[in-house]
Amino acid sequence: ILDPSCGSSEFLVEVLKQLKNKGFNGKIFVKGFDSSDSAIRTSKFLLSYENRKQWDNLINLDIRKVSDSLVEDWEKNDIILMNPPFISWELLKEKESRDNVLAILENVVKKSRPNQATAFFYKASQSLNNNGIIGCVLPTSIFYSDIYSELRNRLNNELSFKVLAKLG
């Protein structure tokens, strides 16, 4: 299970509770990345508590601070849950951040200025095991903007969507 923008790991804690409620007893490896020291400290505390109290310390936890989750090796995962950073192209101040977004989206978004959340979502789609699941909060632009039409077509061919919802 991966959350590449884990914050305080609310999604990871919740998926562990859901697995426990369903009686899951297989091996669990939880990975979380974030760029915030305080978020990582909170995540480690909450997930360690959950691991100790609910799972008898059977969960393998890898929660770490990273400078940019997009350059990390996400490997293959059964579940990816995330609320990625909603940073527009204009607000991506560092050239390196823009380059990282473009590198991930280079084959699916052309001649545009994509947002960072879209790069997270596309990287997630490429980091799933067969029959893997993504749960993700996304900006509505990915569903409607012309610059993402090729991305939508590719994802429609590669993924099987169970639920798409627009909230608000």
3D architecture notes:
With 168 residues, the protein is of the alpha/beta class. It has six helices and five strands; from the N terminus they run βαβαββααβαα. It has helices spanning 10-21, 37-55, 95-105, 116-125, 141-144, 149-158; strands at residues 2-3, 29-34, 60-65, 77-82, 128-136. β2 (29-34), α2 (37-55) and β3 form a beta-alpha-beta unit. It is globular. The relative contact order is 0.15.
Computed structural class:
alpha/beta
Shape: globular
- Say how many strands there are: 5
State the order of secondary-structure elements, H for helix, E for strand: EHEHEEHHEHH
Question: What order do the helices and strands come in, and which of them pair?
Answer:
Elements: E1 2-3, H1 10-21, E2 29-34, H2 37-55, E3 60-65, E4 77-82, H3 95-105, H4 116-125, E5 128-136, H5 141-144, H6 149-158
Parallel strand pairs: 1-2, 2-3, 4-5
How would you describe this structure in keywords?
alpha/beta, 3-stranded parallel β-sheet, two-stranded parallel ribbon, 168 residues
Q: What would a concise description of this structure say?
A:
By secondary structure, the protein is α/β, with parallel strands linked by helices.
